């Protein structure tokens, strides 16, 4: 038998890292990408990248067009993502609450999970309106620019928040709070009132209200209601916030129900 040298192990780990870089780049959106563009973006030589893509194609993780010139995520990625969601306890536990919130307010209800300085969308219930908020399942958004992210960041002390975020913060829109002083003031307000909000900081024309759900300490999940700013005025926002706080409180006591939504 041949032993595995340190150099062999290093090459194996590097190859695994490159494979994940390719999948994450394709998952970032923007449609199918040509080999040359991926090579430049990832800093991987075309010959090495082509070999990786051939392996991923054979395993169903990547698909290509008829000409074999552009690459996108394959069905295997969907299968694994669906398996993750199917096994996720939070998505199952809070699904009923999302249903009832979406029905009560006729707006999009969402479940997010904190992951570093971002939040990832785990579940969504659609608004019946033609003009509505939409983010695809699995999308990653900056925590500081979202109501859900702020609700979760506020569960942590400022020094822990600083370790999660990378300053200066990126601006999603002209309204995004990016400075540490303003964000810390916003998080202090969230802690005081028990819920978070944002208006046109994550997406132009949209606003949201959110609350952290105490499944863990500190919380890693938040539920949010998102709507066009034209439909989310102060009174509606207050009613949404009250319903979200009530829902989170009932989850903490083992009663994931909402009242007053007949």
TrEMBL record:
Instruction: Tell me which InterPro entries the record gives.
Output: GAF-like_dom_sf (IPR029016), HTH_MetabolicPath_Reg (IPR050707), Tscrpt_reg_IclR_C (IPR014757), Tscrpt_reg_IclR_N (IPR005471), WH-like_DNA-bd_sf (IPR036388), WH_DNA-bd_sf (IPR036390)
Bilayer-crossing residues are none
**Entry's Gene3D superfamilies?**
3.30.450.40, Winged helix-like DNA-binding domain superfamily/Winged helix DNA-binding domain
Q: Which domain of life is it from?
A: Bacteria
Q: Which residues form the IclR-ED domain?
A: 76-257
Pfam (any one)? IclR_C
* GO BP term, example: glycerol metabolic process
Q: Which residues form the HTH iclR-type domain?
A: 13-75
Entry GO MF terms: DNA binding; DNA-binding transcription factor activity
Alphabetic keyword roster: DNA-binding, Glycerol metabolism, Transcription, Transcription regulation
Keyword Phosphoprotein set for record: no
Q: Which SMART domains match?
A: HTH_ICLR
Q: Which SUPFAM superfamilies match?
A: GAF domain-like (SSF55781), Winged helix' DNA-binding domain (SSF46785)
Q: What biological function has been recorded for the protein in this entry?
A: May be an activator protein for the gylABX operon.
Protein name listed in UniProt: Glycerol operon regulatory protein
What organism is this sequence from? Micromonospora carbonacea
